[in-house]
Design brief:
elongated, 56% helix, alpha+beta
């Protein structure tokens, strides 16, 4: 059963469908403009959704953290035990991890060397995930080392690494090579006992809002208007990241909508040309009793058909583009089927139909209001 068989009960829709088929090249070009517009809107919207998904996943843990380091007005060479105790009191239930840091060059059995930053920490499991081995809750002996550094030097679990004349057996490989994970050697804090004070204190809060509150309290406690004893840094709440990405998404949608507006102008031109070419035919229809309303419906239905067909094809192509983008950006193509991705297909399709109908209003009004005698004269 063809579309014409379905539309036979609706004469205006059937005539509109047949009219579109009379000049398939012109109809195809008009629909192609709609397809491109829908792809632009939906693809840019889904790109923003994929970026938001990836950013939420990557920054989710960082927004929960507060990093405290010595400020420019501190009188000691680091954060003292008393200051750490005060920070613990302010942080309440949050995890407080003081750290000492240094750097060194470690050498493998075959003589290869690698520069690494050295971190002395006790609560290793709070700070580091490992791809192999273990990340102890309390690191009293042994060492963790970055996975990439271990691979480069050919080190395995149980191999010794030397720091300051002492040997430490490797207990785990640090998983990430990004923030804090690259070229890093993690040792018990006692390994850096030559340093009296801590270089940084990391606070891991329940969520981004709690991290913001703790950061403000620490800054208020230790710093004055013109004095900075401790420098307090946080990535900000996850809501702020989401707000920025929503703004970026709106900008991308604005760019994409330009394509659909251009397509709407093309449809307006197609519909005007079609009504001018068929002026005599419309005059005959009016002369045999076809009412203005039916002519109006016929022209608007033509415009709607262009929007529906172009919107459906554009949405299908956009879905394929979305699968690729979510796989490349977020690492999981199936995330495109979440509402955060699918809503842009619905938005693109709806905008295509609406833009097509608006483009058809003037040509439909003009064709419906021509006097039959004027139309027949040409």
């Amino acid at each position: 059963m063809g579309i014409a068989d379905v539309l036979w009960r609706f004469p205006s829709a059937l005539m509109a469908w047949r009219n579109l088929g009379r000049n398939r090249v012109r109809t195809g070009l008009a629909a192609l403009g709609i397809v491109i517009g829908v792809i632009s809107i939906a693809s840019l919207g889904m790109a923003g959704a994929a970026l938001q998904q990836q950013a939420t996943s990557s920054l989710g843990s960082l927004t929960d953290e507060v990093t405290v380091s010595p400020g420019q007005d501190i009188t000691t060479d680091g954060i003292t035990d008393d200051q750490v105790s005060e920070i613990r009191g302010i942080a309440d239930d949050a995890t407080v991890v003081p750290q000492k840091s240094n750097s060194t060059t470690i050498t493998s059995r075959n003589g290869q060397e690698a520069w690494v930053s050295v971190t002395g920490v006790t609560q290793a499991s709070a700070m580091y995930n490992v791809s192999r081995g273990e990340s102890p809750e309390r690191l009293q002996s042994g060492a963790l080392i970055s996975n990439g550094t271990a691979t480069r030097l050919g080190l395995e679990i149980g191999d010794p690494v030397e720091y300051d004349g002492q040997l430490y057996r490797i207990r785990g490989f640090i998983e990430t090579e990004g923030f804090g994970g690259g070229n890093e050697l993690v040792l018990p804090v006692s390994a850096l006992s030559d340093q009296q004070h801590y270089g940084t204190v990391t606070i891991i809060a329940e969520d981004g809002a709690a991290a913001q509150e703790i950061a403000a309290s620490i800054s208020e406690r230790f710093n004055g208007e013109d004095e900075q004893v401790l420098s307090v840094f946080t990535f900000g709440g996850q809501d702020n990241v989401g707000s920025f990405l929503n703004t970026l998404n709106l900008a991308l949608l604005g760019i994409g909508s330009i394509s659909l507006i251009v397509a709407s102008v093309a449809i307006l031109n197609v519909m005007l040309m079609s009504t001018i070419e068929r002026r005599g035919e419309i005059g005959v229809l009016r002369a045999v009793g076809i009412r203005r309303g039916e002519v109006l419906r016929m022209i608007l239905t033509e415009a709607m058909f262009l929007g529906v067909v172009g919107g459906l094809v554009g949405a299908a192509v956009s879905l394929a583009v979305g699968l690729f983008m979510f796989d490349a950006i977020a690492g999981d193509a199936m995330l495109v089927f979440n509402w955060s991705g699918l809503r842009y297909l619905v938005l693109g399709f709806g905008f295509a139909v609406l833009a097509s109908l608006l483009s058809g209003i003037y040509p439909a009004w003009k064709a419906a209001n021509d006097r039959p005698v004027d139309s027949l004269r040409g």
